[in-house]
Amino acid sequence: MLSKLEKEYIDTRGYWTLFKPLALFYRHQLERALTRALRREGVALEGKRLLEDGCERGNLLRQLLELGASPGRCVGLDRDDAALRDGRDKTAAALRFVCGDAAALPFRSGAFDVVVQSLLFSSLPPGEARERAAAEMERVLAGGGVLVWYDFVERAKEGLPQGLELGEVRELFPGWRLAAYKFGLRFRWAHFLVNKCLWLAQTLASLGVARSHYVIIIRRP
Prior knowledge:
alpha/beta, Rossmann fold, 21% strand, globular
């Protein structure tokens, strides 16, 4: 989706909410891609110990509950304590939110069956920071577990978070098996079209024109 800076810009103008067409467009695109990926790759969430790394306010965690994740076995981690407090206020009490660093996850090795990366890596600078975060995700993943990747691919202006293409994801998890599902519509296209001609934005997205995001199911070799 959008970078945190872009979302902050939009939030100040009051239209990055699910009452607005642009937010709903991206939400529906993600729901379809995530459901398709989990179903096709045989990933069941029910009863699994699940971590969302970079959960912000827990929006994706709440979607994962709708897809079968068990509230009492889900944890969301983020560095933004204010966002986590907001997430706690809006989410089922059984969900646990932890303030922490993706480069040094405060969990034991093999603690989770499913680890979800949610718009985290695009907010990290390329190089060592991303490599450390990937290594920590691998460390806390149990044997036979699954990594679920959700992030955007767009290259933003200098100084803003940068998306990752599939080859860059492969470099972070060398030798792992990746099943990638690209979806969505580049932000500039969607921003222009959704409010003017929603059916055209939906059609372009369904045709795979200028796709903007990845859901990737990642497994050990």
